[in-house]
Design goal:
Layout: H1 2-32, H2 54-70, H3 79-82, H4 91-104, H5 111-125, E1 132-136, H6 142-154, E2 161-165, H7 175-178, H8 194-203, E3 213-217, H9 220-223, E4 232-237, H10 242-252, E5 256-264, H11 271-283, E6 291-294, E7 307-313
Parallel strand pairs: 1-2, 1-4, 2-3, 4-5
Antiparallel strand pairs: 5-7, 6-7
Helix pairs in contact: 2-4, 2-5, 4-5, 4-6, 5-6, 10-11
Length: 317
């Protein structure tokens, strides 16, 4: 009987080891390179699946958003990235960080756009040429926290985070803002103080290394032309109206490195933002396709638009 039990025990251990040999590498593969979501997840109404918790649905949603972004990543990486042993950027990090900021209510950005910003920042870390992260329109710091924490955890190339905001709200709208069916924006809208911004960074542990952050106060037409930025890997635009978006593109887009990522938060929610992006792309013959960030909708929520934000990757990756 003892011999039989020992034999069965060894057989059980062997089966466990064989199962581990199969499923552990599969788990690592999913974390390192998440699979594309099924076609059903591409429908906004079905992204948040009934019967699943918000956290479980967010994992599926993250995979839906990450697929097109992951497809853009080059096999070539900068030497400082290659030397980083623990560069593992996957769903576990994205979902945790996005959910934390969304639940804090310090950001007006939807969960979909927070998730997309995180995935784009992760993709930007893999570019062959290191570049900084730049955000125009930091507001209360919700998206800034995500980008800074990504750099703190994964960057080994001494990248900087550049944040710009008037901290007085939007500037006055112009003619381009007033024509169309989308939002116009109003002077002073979305005002947040510097003290609020820095307090939120402190609270959410994004202020551990002040030397890697450059926060500049002022309207973009005054601050961006003189900002000493040379290389941008991820440009996140959140200026809402025409002048803020146009000034950011004119002064910063030429500094985006080949293969760098551009995210526009308000493309399909503000008249002026869409006009500025379309005009700049047309003027500079930018043909790279824009990808919509589809908004998820839970059964108890209503959303007017299929998407608000877009992103694209600059040629040359």
């Amino acid at each position: 009987m003892t011999k039989l039990r020992n034999s069965q025990g060894r057989r059980g251990v062997g089966l466990l080891l064989n199962a581990a040999a199969i499923f552990v590498p599969l788990f690592v593969l999913i974390i390192l390179h998440p699979p594309h979501a099924s076609s059903a997840l591409a429908t906004p109404n079905t992204i948040f699946t009934p019967g699943l918790s918000l956290n479980e649905s967010t994992y599926l949603f993250s995979q839906h958003i990450s697929g097109p972004i992951m497809d853009t990543i080059s096999n070539k990486q900068s030497s400082c990235v290659q030397n980083k042993q623990n560069l593992v950027f996957g769903e576990h990090f994205v979902v945790r960080e996005a959910m934390r900021v969304k639940k804090s209510k310090i950001s007006l950005v939807s969960l979909a756009r927070l998730v997309a910003s995180l995935w784009l920042s992760g993709a930007a870390l893999s570019l062959p040429t290191p570049g900084d992260f730049v955000e125009t329109g930091v507001y209360r710091g919700g998206s800034s926290i995500l980008l800074i924490r990504t750099l703190l955890k994964f960057d080994s190339c001494n990248r900087l985070f550049w944040g710009f905001d008037s901290f007085e709200g939007l500037p006055a709208s112009v003619a381009e803002d007033k024509v169309g069916t989308l939002s116009r924006g109003s002077e002073g809208q979305y005002t947040a103080t510097e003290s609020t911004f820095y307090a939120n960074l402190q609270q959410y542990k994004a202020f551990k290394n002040p030397k890697m952050m450059v926060i500049t106060k002022g309207f973009f037409n005054e601050t961006l032309p003189v900002a000493p930025i040379t290389h941008i890997a991820f440009l996140r635009l959140d200026g809402d109206i025409f002048t803020s978006t146009w000034d950011a593109l004119v002064n910063l887009y030429p500094k985006v490195i080949p293969g760098g990522y551009i995210y526009v938060d308000d493309y399909d929610s503000f008249n002026g933002c869409k006009k500025a992006v379309d005009a700049y792309r047309l003027q500079h013959k930018i043909s790279e396709p824009m990808t919509k960030i589809i908004e998820g909708k839970r059964p108890d929520q209503k959303r007017k638009r299929e998407y608000e934000a877009v992103w694209w990757q600059k040629k040359g990756a």
